[in-house]
Amino acid sequence: MKSVRFRFKHLFAGLSAIAFLAGAAAAAPAPAPAQGSAPAANANKPLEPSETKNFGDWTVRCFPPSAKIPCQMLELLVNKKSGRRVLGVLIVYNKAQDQYVMQIAMPLGVMVQNGAVLGSDSYTSGVLHYRLCDMQGCYAIAPLDNDAIKALGRATKAEMRIVSADGKKFNISFSLDGFTAAHNALLDMMQQKTSSAPPTEKGH
Predict the structure, then answer these.
(1) Are 179 and 152 in contact (CB under 8 A)?
(2) Helix axes 146-154, 179-196, angle to 10 degrees
(3) Which residues on neighbouring strands pair with residue 77, listed in sequence order?
(4) Tens digit of each residue's pLDDT (9 = 90 or more) over 36-74
(5) DSSP 140-182
(6) pLDDT digits (tens, 9 = 90+) for 161-188
(7) Which of the four CATH numbers 2.60.40.3080, 3.40.50.1240, 3.90.930.50, 2.60.40.1880 does domain 2-7+47-195 have?
(8) Which helix (H) or strand (E) is 114 found in, with range?
(9) Which residue from 62, 143, 149, 181 could staple onto 71, CB 3.0 to 4.6 Å apart?
């Protein structure tokens, strides 16, 4: 089994690809242009984060009150020479269900039917099934419970175990440096966002 390791770099351009569900939910619809005016050039532009904090190799981003998902934590692994994303890991928290959702962006050329496995020295996931592939990569989504989050917080290393289209097994290592601090900040910043959000008007 060959192990592949790349340098880490936070890269937010094109994040909508990794967060194809969370990003879609977070992006609020743009207001309609005034009558007689030309459509805005950035009408379909993804919602920009209003607050960003870095914790080791992890980043927490929060969005304006109009976003349905207030905050997310993420790490992106990028090939330094080509600038291409190799791996993306994004986690959001559903407070109503007390459950986390993890979204993984994989490189192209994987054997889709085999799925992928997240492994660490304290946690191993089940098979993560790919939900979508596009020109940028293939994407898997899986729920995470509190025990999985705690286990990843205790881990010192993690990797995605994937199978290439020609049947070869690869491990893509990623960092957990800052994971626990980012997770704590995610919950704190979400609490601040939700507590400061204006109340929703009820219909009569």
Answers:
(1) yes
(2) 140
(3) 8, 87
(4) 444 444 445 667 888 999 999 999 999 887 777 789 999
(5) EEEEE-HHHHHHHHH-S-EEEEEEBTTS-EEEEEE--TTHHHH
(6) 999 999 999 899 999 999 999 999 999 9
(7) 2.60.40.1880
(8) none
(9) 62
